[in-house]
Amino acid sequence: MSRSRRSKSSFVLTSLTWAIVLLTVFPILWMVFTSLHSNDQIMNGITSFELKKPQWVNYVNMWDTVNFAVYFRNSLLICGVTTVLAGSFAVLAGYALARFEFPGSKVFSMSIISTQLIPGIMFLFPIYLMFLWIRNTFGLPMINTYWGMILVYTAFYTPISIWIMRGFFVSIPRDLEESAAIDGCTKFQAFYKIILPLSVPGIIATGIFIFLTAWDELLFAWVLTTSSDVQTIPVGIRLFVGQYNTRYDLLMAASTVVTLPVMATFFLTQKYFISGMTAGAVKG
Amino acid sequence: MGLQRDTDHRMKGAPGAKVRWTKRVREHKFAYMLVLPTLIFMMMVHLLPMIQGIWMSLLNLNQFTLAKYLKAPFVGLSNYWGLLFDTDNPVRQGLNFAVRNTAIYAVVVTVGVMVMGLLMAILMNRDFPGRGIARTAMLLPWVIPSYVVGVLWGFMWQQNGVINYLLVDVLHLMHDKPFWLMGPNTIWAIIIPTIWRGWPFLMVIFLAGLQTIPDDIYEAATIDGAHKLRQFWHITLPMLKPIIAVQLLFQIINNVYSYNIVSTMFGNGAGYPGEWGDLLMTALTRQSFGYWAFGSGSAASLMLMVAMLMVVGVWYRTFRTELNAQ
Amino acid sequence: MRKTAMASAALLAALSLAASGCGGNNNADNQASGSDNNAKGTNAPAATSTADTSAKTNDDPVTLTAWIMPNSPKPDADFLKTIDPYLKEHPNVKVKVTVLDWGSAWTKVTTAATSGEGPDLLQLGSTWVPAVASMGGIDKLNDKVADVGGAEAFLPAIWNTTSISGQEDVYGVPWFVDARAIYYRTDAFEQAGVDAASAFKDWDSFKAALEKVNGVTVGGKKMAALGLPGKNDWNVVHNIFPWIWAAGGNVLADDNKTVTFNDDKGLEGVMYYTSLAQEGLVDKASLEKNSSQIESDFGDGNSAVIISGPWLAKNFNTPKANGGMDDKAAAKNFAVAPLPAGPGGQYTFVGGSDLTVFSGSKHKDATWELIKYLSSEEAQKAYADISGQLPSKLSVLNAADMDVNMKAFAEATKYGRSYPSIPQWGPTETALQKHFANIWDIVAGVKGDYNKDSIQKEMDSAAAEVKAIVNQ
């Protein structure tokens, strides 16, 4: 009796779970489904779940209507390097915050949170002008360069990554370094040889987090890049839809395509990501 | 340099807290080296531009004075005064809606993602057929770029779009097809996609948290006759409190500063989201680049920052014990 | 540690110098300067800029950057195709094209104009020229415009946008023209028994015709009389103003300071236009859509009449595989007619884009040469064909071999009107767009009741905001 009731309630819960999963996945399927329609079908609103003639050609046309391959390359490059840089900085600073209570560490922690509270629009213009100043003073161009974008993105995403990494390091027992010290390791050696290898899942989780967030950035990319040599996907993707030419079919195809690399990265590293987040999240 | 040496010297004579302070700095050379790269970047990209931003908020920066930038006419606090007290100020009128919408949006989205995330985490923590696939599928929305989310949902919300089709023609939940991208419904049109994109991440975090709660606590509770709901209130929630605290803060910040989804959903970045769709970030962007009112844009940004600092303060006081427990 | 602290202190100091230095560098007042505008940057760029006298020798390799908007189906490729003959003739010139989208272009152009960091050749929406000129972002072309035929060679409505109202200086050369006219379904009109010849005469005949056409079934599809976009559009302001003008209203009085669009006439215009939607002649679903979607609705036979620009005719000629609509019934059964006259006369919106020389450019002469080519008859024609926009040059616009739809648009430009050419137009349009969006909310029935008072109230608050902007 009680067993059958339990299996009944378990059935209900499982159905509920799957219902939510379906609802969650639906918009994504819809995006892919939409991308296989022609432009006018999309604009008129698709309300049929039947696909008569899939427009695979959209996935071909999107590359030459707008120079999408270049935007794609730029995004991969900028976000990739940002991930490595911000990830490394976060590992270093996160470790410092997790292990040492140095004078200023409280202030440093606070300023990490504070950076998240500055509205982008407030320092967008100043950064732009500072970049100009650097160019004019040192002859080093910053606007519309990869390194300019990487500099900004690295600074943006380091603080929150520090927070994640710190949580991860806190979860690693201190005894490890203490015994390493007894074995004659310096602080750096202990960190490098013992703690770092243990932190790989956390580092990967942080890296994915940075990559996804950078892939998503819109406002600064609009202003700080001025030519398609450097512009990223969020800038380029808008060219499909404008006042005089509107290709929603290609826009949806492009939307699907830009989701793929992040999805691929994510699924390849999912295992690490979840275990990394598990360790990090629990300690906050 | 000389001055510093001087102080050092004086300190030697009077051993106190300050001696220990310099000593401690020296002791933590390693820690400082670790945070140095971050500090440099933060200084360049956050601190210095922000100082300029503060100065900008005291200037009359419009399209005629913008070329002078930091040497534009100094107007003291009048940008602030205009935003706070001048009811005729068009900037202020526009921001009123944005403030209201952002408050609703941030609260509803934050609560939404936390509750949905926790619920999904609990559901996913059970063993059921296809759990691995379900868990992976649940995470998909999180990897969709937000500018894609805006465009995609913009289509779905159209009056003759798929959402109305499902609600009206398939499920018969409503009689008429409502407008989602115009009027008061707009707020839902921006909240729901944000929750949709946000909750998978919370689910992972909570799932991670749930898995660290030892089973024997629940077993002991079951033996004591505690009901599932009681277990949730008295075991699960308290154990998750540190996670909830941290995620709550990040969510509030994220949502108050939300920009991408709204900006791409309306007119592909060129439209006005409407009195129920305009958020602070879209309003301030329009303020700065649409009206070229960089001065009052900065003033409003700063006031927002101060308000948010207070929110963080309240948050810290509320969760101090959980945070320090770590 | 002290070393580190000192280092960071020094860094901080250096950087705060940087911060204040920016302002200094941008301080160069180039409001009125002509070709010597390069003073804007620091010495380094100024020094290199003198090298630009190279135009005399004309053979030095030069790479020009051009910022254009998505004017045509393949914006950058189409542009390069248009200038290809020029590039072949001048192998030393290379052109790098960056396409800005209209949504963020404003932001980008503004930032570029205030900082002096931008392209060589800059396409500006016609209403933006005075603003960017007043910021010192683009060069005066006074002595040069004779090279391209001067004012007489171009459509007056678009030529007017190349200078600031009330001033002599010319800042750009018109590139192409965007005019609005009516597209209607000839088959639908026939079936409803409406005489197209008299339907578009004035407001009364227009409304009567719409009422007759409303609900007519063509090809098994029931049509709404009219399709019009509401607030989620790029053209919110351009869609409404022709009706205000036709009612006898205007944006500003002749002094360009007094706001007049919220007077009785302005209100009448807005009421007439919105009443078409309010009285069931428009499928209300279209109020949520943008111009492109409205055009597509028309192509699909959902509406019998829409107001659009010349590019739509081109789109009806473009194969489906390229995103066009040549396969639709509408493609074979449409005609173009002028907007009906209101009590205050007949008007339509004329906009378009101008070509300008960016003040921070280091290759001004070479840029001007390219602009000269783009305003040649050959290039004007080529770009009009490829983009579906109207040429700005009268000799091309009125050429005998223009197709019949383009002719209809050329005709429409005769009663075309543009906005006051004032530096504050950019912000003004931002404000108008916001308030007109609210009007569409009222029309759609999601923001209070639709009546004269509620619309007047919204117009008044728009006027208050515009007043504050133009009197800055």
> How helical, in percent, are the residues of chain B?
over 70%
Runs of chain B in which pLDDT lies below 50 for 5 or more consecutive residues are 1-15
Pattern of helices and strands of chain A: HHHHHHHHHHHHH
User: On the 0-100 scale, what is the average pLDDT of chain A?
Assistant: 87
Query: Percentage of helical residues of chain A?
Result: over 70%
**What does the largest sheet of chain A look like?**
none
Run of helices and strands of chain B = HHHHHHHHHHHHHH
Tally of separate helices of chain A: 13
Number of strands of chain A: 0
CATH class of the largest domain in chain B: Mainly Alpha
How much strand content do the residues of chain B show?
under 5%
CATH superfamily of the largest domain in chain B: MetI-like
Low-confidence stretches of chain A: none
Shape descriptor of chain A: flat
From the alpha carbons, calculate the radius of gyration of chain B and give it in angstroms: 26 Å
Question: What's the β-strand tally of chain B?
Answer: 0
Distance between the termini of chain B: 39 Å
Biggest interface found? A-B, 96 and 99 residues
Which percent range describes the beta-strand content of chain A?
A: under 5%
Integer tally of domains of chain B: 2
